[in-house]
Specification:
The protein is mostly helical and about 325 residues long. The protein contains 14 helices and two strands.
Length: about 325
């Protein structure tokens, strides 16, 4: 099930009264033109990202063999994350109405741009959108390295997860295409390091660049649901309440919008996953008013406040995993 299909399936299963609520909000959103594609915005965004990426690799080539290249590594970690955000938008079909066009952008940004399988990520992210914060069905919390609920904490132990490369068939796209793009990214990346840096510098570059890239991505997704209510099979919530009550927005300026790639409007994004990123800010007043009208808890926190809430939650549910302090 695609991200957009998940939304449609959820709406179809609403009780009559709740279906009317969502229809009312959806009508307002459409009348405001908030589902219209923003081709020029995305063209400018993609062009800027390409310019930033080219500038980073140009600086890398000019600087040559130097430990100052770790600064370049940090810079490229930020740019890689911005590129990944566009891949996320393509996965939600926010850029074009055509699936093929969005897939081409997604493959270019994910596989070739940052070295992550687009198909693998879309499949995983679809399951998250269908069942956000569900203990058994959301892959973002059903992991073995961390526990997000008391029940999970009692049955899990912290350990390092293995990185598995999976070749999946039946996706409708030749796996060879994804594989070739991933190989092209890896070969180009490692060749550049081998030609310019010493072995130890190259190793340090990889650790810093890939480590900060992963950290930045994690910090962009972490505030969205961590510390919010988790669901089980016993919770029979309709689509609207399932999306709103498990999501947290991050308040802030347009700088926060840029830093988090629009993911700071998590409630709006989950209610309308194919809404173009630049329209989420405009949709927020409509969605907030809707939630107030229907008695739904619209959760929003500052950037650092959201991190603090997530950390406190992880600390609380992880308590059973920590050895008791001897008195």
């Amino acid at each position: 099930m695609s991200v957009d299909q998940a939304s449609s399936a959820g709406v179809a299963g609403l009780p009559k009264g709740h279906w009317g609520e969502y229809t009312q909000l959806s009508r307002q959103v459409k009348q405001a033109g908030l589902l219209e594609r923003r081709h020029r915005w995305y063209a400018a965004k993609i062009g800027l990202n390409l310019a930033l990426l080219a500038a980073g690799w140009f600086a890398f080539a000019v600087m040559g063999e130097s430990w100052w290249q770790l600064v370049t590594a940090a810079y490229l970690a930020v740019v890689f994350t911005q590129v990944a955000f566009v891949g996320h938008d393509a996965g939600h079909r926010q850029i074009f109405r055509s699936r093929r066009a969005n897939d081409l952008v997604g493959l270019a940004h994910a596989n070739l741009g940052v070295g992550v399988s687009f198909d693998w990520w879309v499949g995983k992210h679809n399951r998250h959108h269908s069942n956000p914060n569900h203990e058994d069905l959301d892959p973002d919390i059903s992991i073995t390295a961390l526990a997000f609920t008391d029940d999970q904490a009692s049955s899990k132990h912290l350990h390092l997860a293995s990185i598995k490369a999976t070749v999946r068939g039946g996706s409708g796209r030749a796996n060879a295409v994804e594989g070739l793009l991933l190989v092209a990214h890896l070969v180009g990346y490692l060749t550049a390091l081998w030609l310019v840096l010493s072995p130890w510098q190259a190793l340090a570059f990889i650790v810093v660049q890939q480590g900060l890239f992963g950290l930045y991505l994690g910090c962009s997704f972490a505030p969205n649901h961590k510390g919010m209510p988790t669901l089980t099979e016993a919770d029979a919530l309709d689509f609207t309440r399932r999306q709103v009550l498990t999501s947290r927005n991050v308040a802030g300026s347009r700088l926060v919008d840029w830093l988090l790639g629009g993911l700071n409007y998590q409630i709006e994004h989950h209610l309308f996953p194919n809404m173009p990123r630049p329209n989420l800010r405009r949709a927020q007043p409509l969605v907030r008013a809707f939630c107030v009208q229907h008695g739904l808890n619209y959760t929003e926190a500052s950037l650092f406040g959201s991190y603090a809430e997530a950390v406190r939650h992880l600390h609380r549910v992880g308590a059973p995993l920590r050895p008791a302090v001897a008195e």
